[in-house]
């Protein structure tokens, strides 16, 4: 089992849709949970991070962490074509073990 | 302010040659990280620096890989005797401190192609 798994696979949605991106993980030591957005041929850009379980909202983006299920989600409301990118979940413990998911490629169609 | 910069942006090299990849972190950031991203894959963590020190080098793929950081700023990732499987995008990131490693800022990456 991979340490971090991310689903769904490539995703295409119409503009204005609500998007749900998810990751599961196996290491219960993870405490910080991050979401990055990566445009083609660019470096990842931090969207938001969450500590431990709970929700965090930033504009159209909401991150949820359920440590009991080892499951994290990123919701994008009113999706825009400019949201088209690859989304990477990442997590780490209190140390220097940083683990990224493989990413989900999102296309928002006008 | 200036973000993380990396050079070169693209590098094509022949198998067996050595390459050096450079990272300039955000000014004042004491922690620096190197990752590798292969086509369609997630980021593979390679090594981190706190100041000029890299306490754990176990993430480096082989002994052909080495990294150093000088003056608490610029870092260089060196790959000796490159192999085709080294072809990937090498990404550098920095954070204010190791304790704030959840807030990393990435550079644009160096795309390495080994022919």
Percent of sequence in beta strands of chain B: over 45%
Instruction: Give the helix tally of chain B.
Output: 0
Q: Helix and strand string of chain B, N-terminal first?
A: EEEEEEEEEE
Topology, number of strands of chain A: 11
Pair with the biggest interface = A-B, 24 and 23 residues
Helical fraction of chain A equals: under 10%
Summing up helix and strand content along with how strands pair, one would put the structural category of chain A as mainly beta
Round the Cα radius of gyration of chain B to an integer and report it. Answer: 13 Å
Helical run tally of chain A: 0
**Amino- and carboxy-terminal Cα gap of chain B:** 37 Å
Tell me the major beta sheet of chain B. 6 strands, mixed
User: End-to-end span of chain A in angstroms?
Assistant: 37 Å
What is the global morphology of chain A? globular
Q: Give unreliable regions of chain A as ranges.
A: none
What's the number of extended β-strand segments of chain B? Answer: 10
- The overall pLDDT of chain A, averaged over residues, is 93
Average pLDDT confidence of chain B is 94
Q: Oligomerization state of this entry?
A: heterodimer
Assign an overall shape of chain B: globular
Helix content of chain B: under 10%
Write down the Rg of chain A. Answer: 13 Å
How would you describe what is shown here?
The complex is a heterodimer of chains A (110) and B (115). Chain A is mainly beta and 110 residues long. Chain A is built from no helices and 11 strands. Chain A has strands spanning 4-7, 11-14, 19-25, 32-38, 45-51, 54-58, 61-66, 71-76, 85-92, 98-100, 104-109. Chain B is mostly beta strands and 115 residues long. Chain B has strands at residues 5-7, 10-13, 19-24, 31-37, 43-50, 65-69, 75-79, 88-95, 105-106, 110-114. Chain B is globular. The model of chain B has no long low-confidence stretch (mean pLDDT 94). Classes of the chains: A mainly beta (110), B mainly beta (115). Chains A and B meet through strand 4, strand 5, strand 9 and strand 10 of A and strand 5 and strand 9 of B.
